[in-house]
TrEMBL record:
This is Uncharacterized protein. SUPFAM superfamilies: NHL repeat. Residues 121-142 are annotated as: Disordered. Gene3D superfamilies: TolB, C-terminal domain (2.120.10.30). It comes from Magallana gigas. Residues 125-141 have a biased composition (Acidic residues). InterPro entries: 6-blade_b-propeller_TolB-like.
Length: 341
């Protein structure tokens, strides 16, 4: 239960008005909306007329890159690594008042599993207590994903030597772990590399189930050293990915077959994606949150940023389907957008 004493908003910074968009952009939205009305009648029954702010969390992280909710009412928050010009930073767990509860060093993306465990790309120097550090140095592998609970911290899985983890997602349906991987191959010139991408599906214990190759379906994907991608899975089994280095949200079915592409009418970069229990896809852009249906068709603008000094950087949902939106000022704002059942 969120206590009223936690509420710290006065004048709303964000609305769902479209009046600040140029006319040509509004017309593009209308065209997108007319292409698919599937589920729109249901949306009128389950969606609030506008998103309602319920909580503001002032975190100690100056520029938030990724957030993930924990059922206990806490939130894992990661800074933008590029701000520090390093490849390792702290993932910080905070409560609803922004108080720091725990910190973990990571070298990349993370997620929270169905059982509230933190899954994260670990710092290479972060070895398990029962692991022989010399043996680990002799073993050739790419990246390591660790699983951390209140009781344990173990290595869950390792990728091949040439594989870099750029996105992680843990399914709340079956507990499967989806890892978006970038693979590099050195060509004849040492300074030129060929990049390809795949999604590897693991079970909850880190055992590999399958590889889903996506380089034939998505052209131009390439992630910088400090960049990472977002990956999620919808209730119908679709896999959805995006990156702040690529202007399109990409949807594919569980076997990797292409389903849809979605781009902002003004070619803004998607900065975060998630799905709700109804199959909606929520996409964060720097100045707004878009709601799509499960086919990737635009439905409405859930939230509009009215401040030129604030940039939306990420989002997630909690177990009650409230939206948590992180920004470049280290603030996480929480909104209610669904009607009570």
């Amino acid at each position: 239960m969120i206590q009223s004493s936690c509420l710290r908003y006065s004048k709303p910074l964000f609305t769902v008005s479209t009046s600040h968009f140029p006319l040509q952009v509004i017309l593009k939205f209308r065209k997108l909306f007319r292409t698919s009305t599937k589920g729109h009648g249901l949306d009128r029954l389950i969606l609030l007329p506008s998103a309602i702010p319920t909580l503001t969390i002032d975190t100690p992280v100056p520029n938030i890159k990724q957030i993930s909710y924990v059922k206990s009412g806490r939130l894992w928050v990661m800074p933008d690594f590029s701000d520090y010009y390093v490849d390792v930073a702290e993932i910080t767990q905070v409560d609803n008042n922004g108080n720091v509860k725990e910190e973990v060093y990571s070298s990349g993306p993370f997620c929270v599993s169905k059982d509230d465990a933190l899954l994260y790309k670990s710092d290479p120097s972060d070895v398990d207590e029962d692991e022989d550090e010399d043996e680990d140095e002799d073993e050739e592998y790419g990246d390591r994903i660790k699983k951390k609970t209140s009781l344990i911290s173990i290595t869950l899985l390792k990728t091949e030597e040439s594989e870099d983890v750029v996105g992680i997602y843990s399914s709340f349906v079956n507990g499967h772990i989806l890892v978006l991987i970038q693979i590099f191959t050195v060509t004849e010139s040492h300074w030129q590399r060929h990049y390809s991408h795949k999604i590897t599906r693991y079970d909850g214990n880190g055992l590999k189930i399958e590889d889903i190759w996506i380089n034939d379906r998505i052209q131009g994907w390439r992630f910088l050293l400090y960049a990472y991608a977002c990956i999620t899975e919808n209730k119908n089994g679709d896999i959805i990915i995006s990156s702040d280095e690529y202007k399109t949200v990409v949807g594919m079915d569980r076997s990797g077959e292409h389903r849809f592409l979605y781009s902002h009418p003004e070619n803004d970069y998607p900065r975060g994606i998630c799905t709700d229990k109804y199959g909606h896809i929520l996409v964060a852009f720097k100045s707004c949150i878009h709601l799509l249906d499960e086919d990737g068709a635009f439905q409405k603008i859930l939230l509009k940023n009215m401040s030129s000094n604030i940039i939306f950087t990420c989002l997630c949902l909690d177990d009650k389907q409230n939206i948590y939106v992180g920004n470049n000022r280290g603030i996480v704002n929480v909104y209610k957008y669904l009607k009570d059942e």
